[in-house]
Amino acid sequence: MQNKPKHKINLFTLIMISSAIVVSIRNFPTEAETGLHMIFFALVAAIGFFVPVALVSAELATGWPKQGGIYAWVKEAFGDRLGFVGIWLQWTYMIIGSIAMLYFIGGSLAFLFAPSMAHNKYFLFAILMIIVWGATLFSFRGIKASGMVSTICFLGGVLIPGILIISLGLTYVLKGNPIQISMSLDKISLIPDMSRITSLVILVGFIRAFTGIEVSSSHANEVTNPTRNYPIAIFVVVILGFLLNILGSFSVAAVVPQKHISLLAGLMQAYHDFFHKFNMGWIVPIVGIMIAVGAIGEISTWTLGPVRGIHASAKNGELPPFFQKVNDNGIPTHLLIVQASFISLVGGGLLFMPNLNTSFWMSNVLAVLIYIVMYSLMLLAGIRLRYKKADAARKYRIPGRKNLGMWAAVLTGLATLTFCFLISFLPPDQLKITHKTLYVFLLILGFVVLVSVPFVVYRARRPAWRIVNSEREESEL
Questions:
Q1: pLDDT tens for residues 444-463?
Q2: pTM for this predicted structure
Q3: Residue 5 lies in a domain
């Protein structure tokens, strides 16, 4: 049987998919709360993490543009076991990390139409179920449909609201209105006191704002001319993400007094205060809906991203034949259903726990910790393949004499990730945790369990799974 030709992703669609994963305006109030320190934190996050990861992923994706992304790269460098661990950790991050996003959508919609529902667990659970299963079922239609949703949601829910906020903020400043943050360019204003726990935790938040750039690589073999278009898309997203975060956060900080920018008040409260400064309160519901749409687009893009890598590992015989099933559009439907079921169970379980704030924060920290391990594997794969596969064709190579550029990117990225890994265990002041030792112990225990799972799953694989896959591929030729 002859396979259907796959839909190809052009450069614009690839930029939209990658932007929908990485670029967001949700972080503006959190970043604005740091004042001019936002420049320092954003530069550290961009230079120490975002740029190295983008450079390495661009080289790996164009050198090994196989379906699977992280799985294919780490497998090529270190073998099947660590390749499976890498993609499993990325998939786990998606499952855990998407939960906070789903409740953000529910909280935003509640703030606009029925503020009292923002704390209603049944309402939030209903929103979670509708979006998760809606995005899952829509993903069955294939990458073309998913790319269309990513484009619409990014443009309408991220880029347009972001440009609006930046434009209003700059207009506010240029008209000579009082700026609500100190514009003094001295050391105290520009360099934070890194001895403070709050400052350290905020740095982790900035790092997380730039995660996900590598997810679009799972579609690398579906991109038109990937050796040219993938690096271009990556660098466009890096620049767009950095500029939008800095200018957008500055706009919010310039207009809204710092004491009114609170993590507890929520994103929509910050935007409510922002637009009322311009006597534009009427636009808050419209922008709120657009922001929720942008977040839904991010969920939709994440839904089909890491699962493609997991499917690649399943075809390699590392998961039972049940998980190798695809529909006529080439979409791994069984894996998507299992993924949606996990998100529903974990999301519902966290929602109905008594200490909701601490549970959510710990789930976010665990997500960051496992993603740090995955990124470390990816960076190490980059340098490993420079020596193991020195002659492999790479249409994009990190510039630098011999392997100097790659070494610089990898060491910079690993140093930043190591620092963030250590400070992620620090209890944040905002939660006022009394049993800090127990808090750290539970984080360590959760981290060890989550990282151990893929090793256990890999050990349970059976040779027959690979044979079934081989027979299937032969029958399709």
A1: 998 999 999 999 999 988 88
A2: 0.80
A3: no
